[in-house]
Write a structure and sequence with these properties.
Blueprint (H helix, E strand, L loop, with lengths): L1 H15 L6 H8 L4 H4 L1 H5 L7 H5 L6 E8 L2 E2 L7 E8 L7 E6 L10 E3 L14 E6 L8 E11 L4 E10 L4 E8 L2 E2 L4 E9 L7 E6 L9 E2 L1 E4 L2 E7 L7 E11 L4 E10 L1
């Protein structure tokens, strides 16, 4: 029992006088008596001094408030930039953080890469507690969800863990494809509109083409309009027979991904 009391006393005294315990120091104090593990109930019933609950409330470990990856959907092309950011703080202040690292092995990169908070190498603002890393996804990585573990260590030897995730895919996703109006008379103008979500950047859409054979016209390319929308205005030829016209389209991006669909247009 004396060893138990001494172990708790040493820890409590160090904390009471404002000394920050390192992980090794805390373990050293606690390991002074194996009986601590067996007599935890006695510690909680100890009527004089400090109990184990007071030690558990002491914050010694770094705090990772969040970890984010942007974009969250990215192609495995070895060129699209993925930015990993982590907001990290410490009970003794941000200067006590000794390092923040990410394991990028799931996306084909090094397993221990440093995030920085120095206003360089992709980091927006120095010393704002937001640590940043820029990377990309190896071309050999298969599609699917990937986790990126992140850890933060402080100068006292304590470590905190967190993680974020990415979705690996090279193919665009069609959100909407329509003719506006959906029904029109011969000789009228019609807008062809396609809204698409592209892994990585919308700027990496290399082309969207629409086959207008059923209207007696040649294939055309749609133009980027705003946000994720591509569009183009066409004029329905006057000699076309009325009916529902099926206009196939194809989307291709720089990562080699593609998507296809059909726009239906009613001609009266």
């Amino acid at each position: 029992m004396k060893k138990i009391v001494l172990a708790i006393f040493f820890i409590a005294q160090a904390l009471a006088f404002g000394k920050e315990l390192t992980r090794d120091e805390a373990m050293s104090y606690i390991s002074k008596s194996e009986a601590i593990k067996k007599k935890e109930s006695a510690l909680f019933n100890f009527k004089v001094g400090y109990d184990i609950s007071k030690i558990n409330r002491v914050k010694l470990v770094p705090i990772i408030k969040y970890v984010k990856a942007a974009p969250i959907k990215v192609p495995p092309d070895g060129r699209t930039v993925v930015e990993v950011t982590a907001y990290v703080d410490d009970p003794s202040g941000p200067k006590n953080i000794s390092g923040v690292n990410a394991d990028l092995s799931s996306i084909g990169k090094i397993a221990n890469m440093s995030l920085v908070d120095n206003g360089r190498w992709g980091d927006a603002i120095a010393d704002d507690n937001i640590y940043t890393l820029q990377t990309n996804v190896n071309q050999q990585i298969p599609a699917g969800g990937k986790e990126i573990p992140v850890k933060a260590a402080n100068k006292s030897g304590w470590i905190a863990f967190s993680k974020t995730s990415l979705e690996i895919d090279k193919n665009p996703t069609i959100i909407q494809a329509l003719a506006d109006p959906e029904k029109a008379k011969r000789g009228d103008n019609v807008s062809l509109i396609i809204k698409v979500e592209n892994p990585g950047r919308i700027e990496d859409i290399s082309g969207i083409t629409v086959n207008l054979k059923e209207l007696g016209l040649e294939e055309i390319s749609l133009y980027f309009s705003r946000e994720n929308i591509f569009t183009r205005i066409i004029s329905i030829p006057s000699q076309i027979m009325p009916g529902i016209k099926k206009l196939p389209f194809q989307i291709i991006n720089l990562a080699g991904g593609q998507a296809s669909g059909i726009i239906s247009l009613g001609v009266e």
